[in-house]
Amino acid sequence: MVRLIGLSLVLLLSAASALAQSHVVEQRALQDHKAVFGVVSSVDRTLARARLGGTVRNLGIDEGSAVRAGQILATIVDRKLRLKLAALDARRTSLLAQRKLTRTVLDRTKELRKKGALSRARLDEAQTDHDVVVAELAALKAERAVLVQQEREGDIRAPAGGRVLQVAVTEGSVVQPGEVIAVIAADRYILRIRIPERHARYIKAGDPVRIAERGLATAPRTPRQGTIAKVYPEIEGGRVTADVSVEGMGDYFVGERTRVWVATGTRNAVVIPTGYLINRFGLTYARLKSGVEVVVQTGGGVDGGIEILSGLETGDTLVRP
Question: Quick one: 57 and 168 in the same domain?
Answer without folding.
Answer: yes
